[in-house]
Amino acid sequence: MSMVFDCAVPEERADGLAAAASAVRAGQLVVIPTDTVYGIGCDAFAADSVVSLLAAKGRGPDMPVGVLVGSWSTLDGLVMTVPPQARTLVEAFWPGDLSIVLPHAPSLAWDLGRTGGTVMLRMPLHPVALELLRDVGPMAVSSANRTGRPAPNNAAGAREQLGEAVTVYLDGGPCGDPVPSTIVDLTGDEPVVLREGAVAVDKIVEALGTPVRVGR
Q: What family, per the record (predicted)?
């Protein structure tokens, strides 16, 4: 049976984080609050767990899963190189609502779906998520909804959609408006905004000091 922990209660928060960390290390799924929407996550390096995550959402590997990290420095170990534009965006918007796509380090033994050798990374601005990430390391995380349904901004909405597929639900309260992160692709010769979300395109342009392309 799934466990739900109210992270507004200090004792439950501590117990919930411990239970979530144990679940992640055991290859199970957890739901966590973030600064955008609630996410369903697992160990980023456990391929079977990522398969279970995709199955819980009702989607296949053609829609790969992004990775959440708990610190800036984690970025260096996950990607082939960190270009200056990536560091600029990290310094401007992390932790926060910006996801960055980069070529992942070829030595990493993970399978996040059909990524084409890239990984989408973000450091969320939420204390519960950050504490868990700093304990267990990078997590594969997607919005905590069934494919085709709205992404939930609270734990109850996530549980209603995902049910017993998830071992631990960390209830961090409502996230506010369920606005997804903005996604910037830095794998090519110029930055490309693949999705405009919580961070406006003009803010990206301002930070980089250069025009960006919008759309694939």
A: Belongs to the SUA5 family.
Q: Using CA atoms, how far apart are residues 37 and 154, in angstroms rounded to an integer?
A: 8
Evaluate whether 154 touches 173 at the Cβ level (below 8 Å): yes
Tokens 């609630």 correspond to 38
- According to DSSP, residue 181 is labeled P
Q: How far apart are CA 116 and CA 63, in angstroms?
A: 11
Question: What is the length of the chain?
Answer: 216
Burial class of residue 84 in the structure, from the number of CB atoms within 10 Å of its CB (0-12 exposed, 13-18 middle, 19+ buried) = exposed
Q: What is the pLDDT of residues 69-101, one digit of tens each?
A: 999 999 989 998 899 999 999 999 999 999 999
At 216, list the tokens: 């694939």
Sketch out the chain's domains with CATH numbers. 3-179 (3.90.870.10)
